[in-house]
């Protein structure tokens, strides 16, 4: 009997020898104060705004995509004053949205153009230009669309040189 306990005792001693006891965790180190970020670091942290400049465009875009999305947009802007605007877009066969300048008033010229619906609904149209395109976008304009399609109604993009539909790719 003594012989059967000896190997078990040796096994327990060997197992105890392999056990590692870790010291208790130390308190979290205090964070070293960070130096104020310079302009280059701040620019990396947030998007740089598009610099404002006058938009002058006679834009016409009629396009039908393979997925059935279609747009017919006409806009005239001179020195950031919207002179005419008519925009209709279709989301396949599910419905459409329509925007006409007669239903809006211009409330901002810079840093981007902004038009607000005169009915007080909060619908806003925005126009801005970057080096590759002039964008006409909408926000909070569900009432200008067929119910259920607003989330799929994308902005229209114009080529700033020709006024035609901008290349999406």
From TrEMBL:
Keyword Signal assigned: yes
Signal peptide interval: 1-22
Keywords of this entry: Signal
Low complexity: bias regions: 31-42
Spans annotated as Disordered: 25-53
Record protein name field: Lipoprotein
């Amino acid at each position: 009997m003594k012989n059967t306990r000896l190997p078990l005792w040796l096994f327990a001693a060997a197992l105890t020898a392999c056990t590692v006891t870790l010291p208790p965790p130390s308190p979290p180190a205090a964070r070293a104060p960070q130096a104020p970020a310079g302009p280059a670091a701040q620019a990396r942290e947030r998007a740089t705004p598009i610099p404002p400049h006058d938009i002058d465009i006679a834009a016409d875009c009629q396009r039908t995509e393979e997925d059935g999305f279609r747009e017919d947009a006409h806009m005239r802007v001179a020195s950031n004053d919207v002179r005419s605007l008519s925009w209709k877009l279709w989301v396949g066969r599910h419905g459409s949205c329509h925007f006409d300048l007669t239903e809006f008033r211009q409330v901002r010229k810079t840093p981007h153009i902004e038009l607000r619906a005169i009915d007080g609904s909060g619908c806003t149209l925005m126009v801005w230009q970057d080096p590759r395109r002039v964008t006409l976008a909408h926000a909070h304009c569900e009432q200008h669309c067929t119910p259920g399609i607003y989330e799929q109604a994308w902005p229209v993009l114009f080529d700033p040189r020709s006024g035609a539909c901008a290349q999406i790719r």
